[in-house]
Amino acid sequence: MNTKKQLRIISPNGHLGFAPTKEESFKLGAATKPDYYCCDSGSDDIGPAPLGADKSVGMYDWQVHDLELMLLAAREQGVPMIIGSSGDTGTNSRVDMYVQIIKDLAQKHQLPNFKLAYFYSEVDKELIRGKLQSGVEVEGLDGRSSLTLAELDKTDRIVAVAGIHPFIKALDMGADVIIGGRSSDAAIFAAPAIREGFPEHLSYYLGKVLECASFCAEPYAAKESVIGTITHNEVLVTAMHPDQRCTVASVAGHAMYERSNPFFEYFAGGMLDMTNCNYEQYDEKTCRITGPVFAPIEGKVKVKLEGAGKVGEKYIGIAGIRDPYTIKHIDKVIEWSKNQVAEMAAGKEYFVDYKIFGKNGVMGELEPIKDIGSHELCVVVEGVAETKELAEQVTLMATRQIFYARLPEVKGTAGTASFVVDEMLRCTPAFEWTMNHVIPVDDPLELFDVHMIEVAQS
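^ Acyclic terpene utilization AtuA family protein, sequence as received from the core. Prediction below:
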């Protein structure tokens, strides 16, 4: 029987390492002595390329900065620190990188010995293949059909999205610091609350409101800390930045964004129903929430799978345009460029895209672009092909042909494009999402390998 009346969790950053945590509000929060230091370090909002290429999108130094802030505060206070979706994607290499950072920081600051748990989330393609061949249906999400072997074959890397279970196991093992693979954002915060006996419906809501840190406060400010407090009857969320407040509008708005149905969110084993949530202004900086419902789903637990597959090599070119006549006829310029690329690369597979940025907005190819009222445009050209050579050729041809476009009424060289970047920018290869599915499992820990080590000074 849980006798603890409340639990307090600090969330310092909505995406650890994506941009550095702001230190002032973090230190204000740490001074209140929260029970846990928890942070989400990843997202599929960054697209499939980081997962497919197995790389981070956050700068290494920024990730070290954020981990150092949390580790020193948590170890000084003697309370757990929990990280999920390490290194943006939660792949095995990102988990290993974070584990090494923690070891290095412990050595740097000569911290007393502590227990570090970590778990992996990558899934072997052959395991999924075996499931499919044995008749297991891997259902698609967001309108996707069930997974096929052809889609699996196009996949380069897969991660399973952990729920609360590996975090709870690590805490049960005595972990002081947890470095997690790919994870449900909210589970990182819900896990310690559920483990300590607080109601599931409030624990999951606590996770939902804390996952993006200060995004649930106003005025808008990213990378600032907030503290969530859970009791057996309510959730309270408080802004730490001196000029921010968690209001009814800011908290309710955050809880309902980014989903097709803003009132429901699926977690492994159940659905959080926020239809009847009640929001009240508790004090100047704090919003109080009651009323969420967690409905368990009957049958096997289903774990989300994210998979990415390589499409091709990618280059980017940039053209700036100030000539009024060219701007007025930019649709014909793009058409000319596309036709020239098609002629050059006839019979070859490639992809080319044009993004047109103007002083008065951003336009894609299919949107009306006449009479835009701008004196300057920037065209970003993206070319993708199987080989680096063809991708560069396609991108370079598409970008230069903006300058060479043959427009009616132009006599001689009219200076159509004032600036063209001839040196193409080579990018991370292009990837696509190949898997956004759920797979049934007999054990919610089936796809997650939890390890424990002692971090000691040499």
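Residues 7-121+161-300+442-455 form one domain.
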